[in-house]
Hints:
four-stranded antiparallel sheet; mainly beta; five-stranded mixed sheet; 189 residues
Amino acid sequence: YTISDEARVYTYQYQITKYKDSVAEANKLKDGESVEFQLLDTDKNPMKVVKLAEGEYRLAIDTDSDTVKLDKMVTNTNSTILIRGLENGTYYLKETKTIANYNLLSKPFEFKVEVTETTRWTEDGSFTPNGSIVKTYQSTTYTPTDPTGIATIINKRGFVLPQTGGMGYLLFCAVGVALIAGGAALIFG
């Protein structure tokens, strides 16, 4: 008898597309604009990644001794980040740098990788010499909870608060005091 064994490791990918204000092709990032994210695990601890191409990364593994492990991922010219090598689980993207005049995300973006594997076997009714039923492999299907594996993230414009506590308010205070003193002088004078 020939016994064969094959180890298979299943990993999946997830893609994020970044938009400004609303989801529309015109609202994707322009040339020269980019956003940086940090990948976090289920407990929101930072995870290292390896850059494969512009905007394309994979989860770093311990055996990546000859590659540069990064703490951040940067969107590509198509306003996307593709992350490969993810196992089933919950992950977070923390926005660490955004484009000018836009707010950083207030909390990390949560996404889940959930893929169910189903393997089909057929039984031909025969038995092995030790009495086990003979089964023949048919197929394996992978069913993701989110079949697209794609998410969108939208940033909203920020605003600048007016400056308070500067020297300009002293002028208004002085004019106000002068008006009150003038009014009091007219009434009591």
